[in-house]
């Protein structure tokens, strides 16, 4: 059937009309409600862009340390700060503020929110110390520290997991054996 052009419906019709195939039970139903046809792509994949994307790029230029924040947190309902910045700039532009002022206002709001979070955590630590308790973990850790905390269990695992230690020992023995073969072969 590779020589025939068209979709499943037109190919099946051609085969049934040519008596090459018996009429399937689904053909009449499919003729009454044919499947949707999608336009063919010319091989070029269009890049998806959102209206706030240029402002997100400008945000990352101003705040390169925030690039480490997870762009898409699947388990979170809150968008990342860069997207909030872009959306806020668009919102201000719709209200009639020019682009430069809108970016300055959104940047000021971002910095104020970040400062407020740090201040709240500092106050939380002070309260815990006054009560004689251990300070709670930082609810707003940096993205780098979050990543390191996730990786910590795997890093520690390589030192204490007997299976991994066995693999490492085997690799060391293989490396030593290759070195000995290199010395005997006269390459050194």
Describe the structure.
- It comes from Tripterygium wilfordii.
- Belongs to the mitochondrion-specific ribosomal protein mS23 family.
- It is built from seven helices and no strands.
- By secondary structure, it is mainly alpha-helical.
- Among the domains are: 7-35, no CATH class; 52-131, no CATH class.
- Helix 3 packs across helix 4 (81-94) and helix 4 crosses helix 5.
Which short descriptors sum up this protein?
mainly alpha; 188 residues; 7 helices; single chain; 60% helix
Strand content: under 5%
Radius of gyration: 31 Å
Shape descriptor: flat
The level of helicity is: 55-70%
SS class = mainly alpha
Topology:
Blueprint: H1 8-17, H2 27-32, H3 53-62, H4 81-94, H5 99-130, H6 143-160, H7 162-184
Helix pairs in contact: 3-4, 4-5
């Amino acid at each position: 059937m590779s020589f025939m052009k068209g979709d499943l419906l037109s190919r099946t019709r051609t085969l049934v009309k040519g008596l090459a195939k018996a009429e399937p039970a689904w053909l009449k139903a499919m003729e009454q409600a044919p499947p949707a046809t999608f336009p063919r792509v010319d091989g070029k994949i269009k890049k998806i862009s959102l209206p706030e994307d240029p402002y997100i790029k400008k945000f990352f230029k101003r705040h390169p340390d925030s690039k480490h924040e997870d762009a898409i947190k699947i388990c979170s309902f809150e968008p990342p700060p860069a997207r909030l910045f872009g959306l806020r700039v668009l919102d201000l532009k719709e209200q009639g503020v020019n682009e430069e002022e809108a970016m300055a206002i959104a940047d000021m709001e971002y910095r104020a929110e970040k400062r407020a979070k740090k201040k709240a955590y500092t106050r939380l630590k002070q309260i815990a110390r006054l009560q004689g308790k251990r300070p709670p973990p930082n609810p707003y850790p940096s993205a780098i520290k979050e990543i390191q905390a996730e990786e910590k269990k795997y890093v520690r695992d390589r030192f204490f997991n007997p299976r991994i230690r066995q693999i490492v020992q085997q690799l060391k023995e293989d490396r030593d054996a290759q070195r000995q073969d290199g010395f005997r072969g006269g390459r050194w």
